[in-house]
Task: structure prediction
Amino acid sequence: MPIPPGAPPSAMPNGHDVAEQYARQCQEEGREPVAEFVQLLAGPGQRTCSVPRRSPPLTDVDLAILCGYLQGNRSCEELELEGNGLAEAAAAHIATVLAENPVLKCLRLGENLLRDEGVLLLCAAMHKNTSVLQLDLRCNQLGPNGGRAVAQMLQMNNSLTDLNLQKNGLSDDSCVALSKALRTNPSLTALNVRFNDVGDTGALAFADLLRVNDMLSSLDLGGNRIQQKGGQAIFDALQGNSTLLKLNLRSNQITAEACRALEGSLARNGVLAELYLGFNAIQEQGVVCVAAGLQSNVGLRKLDLQGIPVGRPGMEAVGAALKHNAHLRSLIVQMEEDNRDAGLALASGLRHNTALTDLVL
Result:
């Protein structure tokens, strides 16, 4: 039988005995033992149990047995169950681990089928969990109720630092709820809502968050549908933000007009270290604005402008920025094809720059 939660060390059998118990229970249930879990149980020093994309996938019975042992396990710090088609029943078993296990630090459940029902169960268990620091729920087909459940969890949980909600179809309403929750959350430092359905309304909510939140250091909003209004609001918010180190806005619909706000923010913000703007609609004029702000910026180390064709005027602006900026280390910029004048303009700036180590054209 599984080790009961809270059992004293003297009551715990050695690792090989526990692994044998697990194997016998699997046999009784007509299931094959999961080899990775046998290794975890047999070796007390094992800290990770990784069972991604198993063939055949894990079943609810597999999870019921596995989670029964994990409740009392005191060595596993990272559990990875990606790509196993896990749904609501599996989430119920995992929730028991979150309620009983005080050592699990990282839970990766991406690419499953948890949907709203499963996420509601997990988030309810996370309300009181104080050990899990990283939670990966990407690609789980969350709906509005799932988004609200995550937001409510963030209002109650004071230990989670990294949350991945990528590819879940989250709407503006969900993002408004998330941003409100993060106004008072004291722990989350990294939020990934890439490839969702975030528009200007969601972006405005995150902009308001950046004005008051002093914990978030990484925000990924790439692959959404943010346009001028949302982009401008986020860029404006950067002026007074002193904690965000990484901002990803790739593959949105942000325009050149929004980049005028970014010009001023880059001149004033000395904290942001990585900025990803590739594949937006900022065009060459937007690149000129970014380059103007870059001239006096002292914080940025990596700038991504991929997928935005730049001619001579834009490259002259980038070259001028590189003459004055001694801090940027990595630059991705797309020069117009066969534009010799643009290349010469960039080369002029590079001759005076000794800081840049990585240039992708």
Observations:
- The longest strand covers residues 302-310.
- The radius of gyration is 24 Å.
- The chain has two domains: 1-6+15-197, 200-361.
